[in-house]
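User: Good morning. I'm curious how 6-O-phosphono-beta-D-fructofuranose would be positioned relative to this chain. Could you predict the structure with it bound?
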Amino acid sequence: MRRIAVFTSGGDAPGMNAGVRAVVRSANREGLHVFGIYRGYQGMIEGEIKRLENEHVRNIIHRGGTILKTARSKDFMNKEGRQRAFDQLNAFDIDGVIAIGGNGTFTGADIFTKEFGIPFIGMPGTIDNDLYGTDYTIGFDTAVNTAVDAIDKIRDTADSHNRLFFIEVMGRHSGYIALHTGIATGASGVLIPEKAKDTAGLIRTLKKAASRKKLFSLVVVAEGDEEGGAIGIANKVKEQFDDFEVKVSIIGHLQRGGSPTCQDRILASRLGHASVQALLAGRKSEMAGLVNNQVIFTPFAECISQEKIMSKDMMDITEILAMG
Ligand code: F6P
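Assistant: Good morning! Here's the predicted structure, ligand included:
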């Protein structure tokens, strides 16, 4: 292992830059040559590969987004595209690759290593926190803090006008951002895909709250909730419960940007360092994750196929604490 490459792929996540920095500095320390692949798998196919020295990753630990850019590559999904990517890695004599991304990124990496033999190690980089094999993904904590900050502001206006707000957060098919944000903002309800739909239960909670002179309410909705996001559930509730004026707010891509929190910077730094060590130790097709504050490695195949089980305690808390 003499020459390694690092890239970011899929949706960007705050902390990816801290991860790239950790890979570059840890690898250089080991005497490896490090290369950055720009624009994810698409850049790999098109040969957008440049040497990264320690000074190239100066002043990025606090920056959101990814200096390496990112893309969701369709070309890499077919064999011809992957062959072109392999030819490019070969041209640069790359012996191992570190991929920072989510499910799609690791699916591609797993196939690629089986086809061409170049070892890949993954770092979980997605705001969704939907990856098995790590308690938290890089970017999740920042996204939750951004959503909490936005909802604290919405709370002010909801309170002033006595309104019921349905606030939609990201997460694709996962409700982790909604669950954590809901608890942290004291929401009256949290709707997530992991929990069976219960519009009637939500309406009962809102009615009870109204009868106890709770004059405004906040409900956090995961975009992947089966009720059809915040707009869908707001329309259903409006039909059956007109005590409040109902408003919808979709936080959207705000959650993807901004300076990473301390937690995300540390997570990315630890996993970046561990990923370099893993390549040097001959590991491949595994993701570095943090479980119970210990770095562990989980095969890509498991990260992709296994479901990350959401804590029942956390789900229960949202209901118990909602009774204001
Ligand atoms: O996976 C991260 C994520 O932000 C999801 O939460 C969201 O569903 C999706 O990406 C949005 O993707 P795009 O930025 O391509 O619209």
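The pocket of 6-O-phosphono-beta-D-fructofuranose is lined by residues 11, 126-128, 170-172, 223, 256 (CB under 6 Å). The chain has eleven helices and eleven strands.
Let me know if you'd like a different ligand tried.
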